[in-house]
Design brief:
With 233 residues, the chain is mainly alpha-helical. Helices cover 47% and strands 11% of the residues.
Length: 233
């Protein structure tokens, strides 16, 4: 769709109507011919109920943009470190379980992400499975691997999830946010032993939000009954 000021302005007019600044737009050197849309911090509930994502994504498609169909586009989500605890030690314990979850269920998350293993190796590499969650976190901290990892820990105030392919499909966007919310809830509420013994079936049985359930079914990660689906864009 182009790195075009006029088109950027039209997208911002859609996103930031009624005096509410929801989005800003940046240059992204990893994109061949496009824009990076960045939302201001907001809760999941705001994303689901107040953020005009449907209008924004429709405007992008109207202007000739694609996301999933462009191999370079990613959907990156930042979550505040403060969500994981008041102290650094509390945060680290939860973040370690997040990293463990990604390693334990890498194949399922790969399928969810719509990425290829080669794309992830370049832009969102895994840390490598270890028996204990804290061992994965220690490896991540000492490895000096930079930000091109599935869960980027280099930011001071947030952790960044980089695994997912871009999309202009509303249900896919919302389902991705809901999945990460569910993963973080599991990391907060479960012990190391509980998360180590949890199966993927147990995890998805606790996923109840309709957008997430629909997407899990589309990717055959919930039940294998066929469901109708629109193509990604």
């Amino acid at each position: 769709g182009g790195e075009n000021d006029r088109k950027a302005g039209l997208i911002l007019d859609t996103a930031n109507a009624n005096g509410l600044e929801h989005l800003y737009i940046k240059h992204d050197g990893s994109l061949d011919d496009g824009l990076e849309l960045v939302s201001h911090p907001m809760t999941l509930d705001y994303h689901l109920k107040e953020m005009p994502w449907n209008s924004i994504l429709s405007k992008c498609r109207e202007l000739g943009y694609v996301s999933h169909l462009a191999n370079t586009c990613g959907l990156h989500v930042h979550i505040s470190r403060a969500a994981f605890g008041m102290t650094e030690d509390e945060q680290d314990k939860c973040i370690a379980r997040v990293l463990y979850f990604f390693e334990k269920f890498w194949e399922e998350l790969l399928k969810f992400s719509r990425r290829t293993p080669r794309q992830l190796d370049r832009w969102a590499a895994r840390y490598g499975y270890k028996e204990q969650p804290r061992d994965i976190l220690d490896h991540a901290k000492k490895g000096n691997v930079g930000r091109y990892t599935c869960v980027n820990l280099t930011n001071t105030d947030t952790i960044e999830f980089r695994m997912f392919r871009g999309t202009l499909k509303l249900n896919t966007l919302l389902a991705t946010l809901q999945l990460l919310d569910r993963i973080c809830d599991v990391a907060l509420c479960m012990t190391d032993d509980e998360i180590k013994s949890m199966s993927w079936t147990t995890f998805v049985s606790g996923c109840t939000q309709p957008e997430l359930v629909q997407y899990l079914k589309e990717r055959q990660l919930y039940v294998n009954d066929p469901v109708s689906t629109e193509a990604e864009v």
